[in-house]
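Lab meeting, action items carried over

1. Structure of the two-component assembly. Owner: GW. Status: complete.
Input record:
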Amino acid sequence: MALKARHKRFILIGIGLGLIGLAAMLILNAFQSNMVFFYTPTQAAQGDVPKNTSFRIGGLVEENSFKRGEDGLSVRFVITDTAKTVPVLYKGVLPDLFKEGKGVVAQGKLGEDGMFTASEVLAKHDENYMPPEAAEALKQAQTQSNTVVMPK
Amino acid sequence: MSLKKIIFALGLIIAVSAAALIFFAHGLKYISVNVALLALGAVLMRQSAYFSDNFYQHASPQTFYPTAGRMIPWFAWLAVVFVIYGLYISFAIAPTDFQQGEAYRIIFVHVPAAWMSMVIYLAMAFWAGVGLALNSKLSAMMAQALAPTGAIFTLLALVTGSLWGKPMWGTYWVWDARLTSELILLFLYLGFMALQASIDEPRKADRAGALLALVGAVNIPIIYFSVKWWNTLHQGSSINMGAAPKMAATMFEGMILMALAFWMYTIAVALIRVRCIILERERNSGWVKELSLKDHA
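Predicted assembly:
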């Protein structure tokens, strides 16, 4: 069966798009490690992070880990991915959304002693939006379920 | 299958599914979205009257020129109503966010603009591809008409995101996968427009632009899935297929209404622009000359 010219062009365009998609996929796969905006504490613990150069580390700010230094400007906190942790030292202004238990991305260098000295700290926001009352209700429900004594 | 029936069916499906949502799935939770969808469905059903039963007839610029003219006011008015309604819900009804306070309200412009930037590109690439395959003039003109609006929405998404990023993240800009791929989208739009403008012969310009538009379409899934595939500073999507939106009902409502308003605006503006392009390109044809004589009379 002879194909009409316009059908042939449709097929050619389809094949072309498929090939471009495939090429893009391969390129992105090859660049996988360079496409990462931040590394996790687990990757840092395994040594899968750039050495002697600045990189970003991301995770949650561990609860009760935030301490302000004597000078009132330097802060210490711990970034966790719930498996591994990295202690961070930072001097500077923190973004509004910086909070214990919330997402954070810090840029800096990892010292020999395992201390991460950050030059920049960014807050990573999550995708949840709700009114303050709802957040309060959620929190209360959580504390209530925590205080319930489990029957033995 | 005629275009008339397709458009009528599309309107019917939108209207019926909106009505079904009101009564079954969510009750009165998203009432304004349902009302808006009903209105859109009704308008689409009305639009079908402007088309004839002959599918290919509409591929002719001469037939489409008056059809587009009759459609523009409908979509323009829908855009105006949806924008007023959407802004009212977004700024007067939707509650404050528990973490971000009032600054979160940028999502009512930012998210719909970002959606439109991607959807318009896909529409543009679709028309460009159809034009390339069928050698139809009107499809290429549609692609050309969509590009500036897409570029504006991309810029709007980038700028609003950046203004939000400073107080929330602590920086205007980071080179993470989401932000970078969206910036590339802006360059693709600008590149498409520049390439078309730089070639004098319209049919050659169409073909060159179509190739660029089709190749660039690869970027769209990259933008959309970037927050899933890589660690990014940009948050994941709050709205996913098959899952409840991770936001309060009225916030979701405001965002959908604004998205619908942007849709209507895009259709109206693209139709206005395509009419200009038709006149410009067909200026030497008999019917355009006749039209201009009529206007001067």
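2. GW to write a short summary for the group page. Key points so far: Chain B touches chain A through 40 residues (CB under 8 Å). Residues 105 and 223 of chain B are 22 Å apart (CA to CA).
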